Amino acid sequence: MYKRLALNTTSNLGTLFLKLGITFVMTPIFIKNMGNYDYGLWEMVGAVIGYMGMLDLGIRPAVSRFASRFIAQKDNAALTNLYATAWFFLLIVGLFIAIIMTVAGVFFADLIAPSESTDNLRYTWFLLILAAQLLITFPSYTAESYLEAYQEYYLKNNVTIFNSIIGNAVLFIFITPDNALLLLAATNAIGICTKYIFLVWLMQYRRPFLRLRRCYFSLAQLKELLRFSVKTLVQGIATKMENATDSLVIGFVMGPASVPLYSIPANLVSYIRLISYNFTHVFMPYFSSLGALNDQKKIQEVYLTGSKFTVAPCLILAIGAYTLGADFLALWVGEEIAQSADGFLGVLIAFLVIPLFNPMASRYLTAIDKHGFFAKWQPIVALANLGLSILLIYPLGILGVALGSLIPALVFQPILLSVCCKHLGFSPIAYCRTVLMPWLIPCGGMVVAIFIAKAFFVVSGYFVLLMIASLASLLFFLLGWLLALTEIERSQLASILNRKKN
Known about the structure:
Elements: H1 2-52, H2 59-73, H3 76-107, H4 121-149, H5 153-174, H6 180-206, H7 219-254, H8 259-280, H9 283-292, H10 296-332, H11 335-342, H12 345-353, H13 361-367, H14 372-396, H15 398-424, H16 428-436, H17 440-456, H18 462-484, H19 487-501
Helix pairs in contact: 1-5, 1-7, 1-8, 2-3, 2-4, 2-7, 2-9, 3-4, 3-7, 4-6, 5-6, 7-14, 7-15, 8-10, 8-11, 8-12, 9-13, 10-11, 10-12, 10-16, 10-17, 10-18, 12-15, 14-15, 17-18
């Protein structure tokens, strides 16, 4: 099982780093061809679509969780009923959302067009393209959830890698200021739809017992899914409000053209959270399987070891973003965005990184059906985030939005840690001593190394920046290997690396 977890995690991270590389190359091209308004609109519409995604009522993680249990029990009949039930339900949801987007595109496209625009038709086509994408992808999410349950993340990642390379190559060659918005939307939609159609075919080809027939739709199964997923839904809505509201608040108060000043640094820093997400994503079905076997000792071991290994790369990236982020942004997208980010980058990094100190929390509580805690608390956190952001944006601008996100997180995360530790059977102090404290010296060494290097070298290009970041990261790894990891953890890590080589 450790080998499968390592394979899936490596696949997830490989896909993520490819996307990071594509973002590095393509973002300046998008800004140059789309301009701040259309790029900001793309970010805002993406946030709105994220909210629409919550209309699945939290079914997707519920499908992954139930499928994992049925797989452990080798119950193919239950897997068939679950697959068909979720697919037809999500088809109805996708149709509903597509109708909303179509009506918005046909009758209200002028609301998203700039006031001086004489070409509102492209904004109509923009929304119609998104409508078609959502109609196709929504029911296909079921196949993705099953791949996760079967621990076959590498299959969907291979498709994502292929689509990302082809799609961005098309954009790189053909994008112009006249076609940028529509070409980006169409290329993205074709790539995503192709991916999910292929995943549906692949799932049914590899598991012929999974059939999309109406006779396998089970109202009782749907009720069971919804009973579980309502908690996930509330958690998901709150998480979306917490993470996606900032761009909307800035767009509505300061205008879409101001959104890139925040969203580009935020998207860059968010890769730290995505790395943690990809490290931990494979653990939810694993915790669910261990829970079905009632193996509490193994759950404790996996939770602590997995958290400790996940925290380390997140700390490296957070330190690098804080100490070198402004220099990188200046080289990457220009001084305007770099100077704007310099005033709020530290607050933004803190907001995104603090939850990563306990990276397994959501995976574990969802697996053991205790995620009702999120349904109770995260709406409060999200509303506090929204309220503080609206309140603080007027006197403090973008910095106020970042502070509005950070303050509720500082209150919520210690409470979440206490709840997880209660279910796991050890104290928060024991968790901090085992997972977090060993990394203090490596963190300190890395920070000192970067500041010393910046005192001797001017960051005038990517080579110098990469050299400083690489040497400081190497120092972190060296200190971590010698001082942070136990003998058993070093053996486990070496074993995983040796398996990958073989």
